[in-house]
Amino acid sequence: MTQPFKLKIGIIGGGQLGKMLIESAKPLNVEFNILEATTDCPCYSYASTFIEGSLMDSEKIKELAAISDVITYEIEHVDVATLKELETLGKTVIPSGGILEIIQDKGRQKQFYKQHNLATAPFILSDADKAQNEDLSQFPGDKIVVKSCTGGYDGKGVSIQLKSNIKAGELNTVFKGPVVLESYVPDVTELSVIVARNRRGEIKSFPIVEMVFDPEINLVDYLFAPSNVSKNVADDANALALSAITALDGVGIFAVELFLTPNGECLINEIAPRPHNSGHHTIEANYTSQYEQLMRIMLDLPLGSTDLITPAVMTNIIGSNGVTGAYSLDGIDELMSTQGAYLHWYNKSVTKPGRKMGHFTVLDTDLKEAIKKSHFLKSKLNTVPQ
Ligand SMILES: Nc1ncnc2c1ncn2[C@@H]1O[C@H](COP(=O)(O)OP(=O)(O)OP(=O)(O)O)[C@@H](O)[C@H]1O
Ligand SMILES: [Mg+2]
């Protein structure tokens, strides 16, 4: 017989992913402790205990662990050595520190895919200072993708460069330290498969989503599910994502970002070991959301059904250009009077251009209708100075 869920969960990071994770757990009466650098963060008002401190501060992480039964993180930039140390002392960390260590370093991550025969774009590991000496002729075309091995997020730390600029020794004006030099894959469709694996080894994937990027700021503009790919491609993408998480021996929620090339090949771009932007729509559109699924995993419960109930479109609400500081959001009335539209506002006190301020999901039995409604609502929603 299961006791009421008295578990205390410690989340490293107090951003919107943590906020949505806590929201998913409200019906289950689970308690949360949060570590974040500032009280001005989306999770602050939800925390049973809030610890103010850097996510890289070993002592603060240990303080969080001391008052929590299970530790998780909602961002990759955390002190992984401490997570590993806590595991040796018997603390449960989901996903494990060893997995985060691989993922934190894009170079190590790419090597992992190669070693496990998981399809990924060809690459070499190099350094910003040495890149001009590398043989770039092995990569087709005149462009190459350069990725900082550590420290990047939301497309920052990734840049498409001309091979000629790299050969001219100009990379170290943009990058510092170890980099991945990766074959540029033109005309890709970007897909994401969210995979859940629990402590009992049960594994399930969510239906594939297709992402549409804003080319200027390199953030997801909107995404939709189900994706438009053929059954064959969907099966391939799904199999690749499941193989990757099985190879990692992962326990937790993982977003496997994939490229679909014009000739129908699926390649792994990267894996996020946490709930992901590409799974926000699961809150309203699926039987079990990515957040509830992570809750179940932390509580050592069976996984819920990942099936999609209704087609959905998720759109990020991004801080408008030219607006920084206190703000209000225009367009709420239109959103709230649209059937099947759901707003998630992240409770950030200040906006800046490109910052994720919230998102909205539109459900409609007709995906084309949902996309149309989303475009309209996006054109109305704006962060404006207060
Ligand atoms: N080899 C490639 N060929 C073509 N485009 C690429 C390639 N690698 C990355 N990109 C583009 O750059 C984007 C960001 O790359 P990547 O996902 O590796 O970086 P990131 O900083 O981790 O981003 P995010 O946090 O937004 O997921 C990809 O979503 C894709 O649009
Ligand atoms: Mg990415």
Describe the structure.
The protein is of the alpha+beta class. Helices cover 26% and strands 29% of the residues. It has three domains: 86 residues, Rossmann fold; 62 residues, ATP-grasp fold, A domain (Dna Ligase, domain 1, 2-Layer Sandwich); 197 residues, ATP-grasp fold, B domain (D-amino Acid Aminotransferase, Chain A, domain 1, 2-Layer Sandwich). Strands 10, 11, 12, 13, 14, 15, 16, 18 and 19 form a nine-stranded antiparallel beta sheet that branches. Strands 3-2-1-4-5 form a five-stranded parallel beta sheet, with helices on both faces. It is globular and about 60 Å long. The termini are far apart. Bound molecules: adenosine-5'-triphosphate and magnesium ion. Adenosine-5'-triphosphate binds next to strand 7, strand 9 and strand 15.
Q: Which small-molecule species are bound to the chains here?
A: adenosine-5'-triphosphate, magnesium ion
Q: Sheet bearing the most strands, described?
A: 9 strands, antiparallel
Detail the poorly predicted runs.
none
Tell me the quaternary state: single chain
Instruction: Label the structural class.
Output: alpha+beta
Rg, Cα atoms, Å: 21 Å
Number of domains: 3
* CATH fold topology of the largest domain: D-amino Acid Aminotransferase, Chain A, domain 1
| End-to-end C-alpha gap | 53 Å
**What is the number of strand segments?**
20
CATH class of the largest domain: Alpha Beta
**CATH homologous superfamily annotation of the largest domain:** ATP-grasp fold, B domain
CATH architect. name of the largest domain: 2-Layer Sandwich
Please state the average pLDDT score: 94
**What is the general shape?**
globular
| Helix content range | 25-40%
User: How many H/I helices?
Assistant: 11
Fraction in beta strands: 25-35%
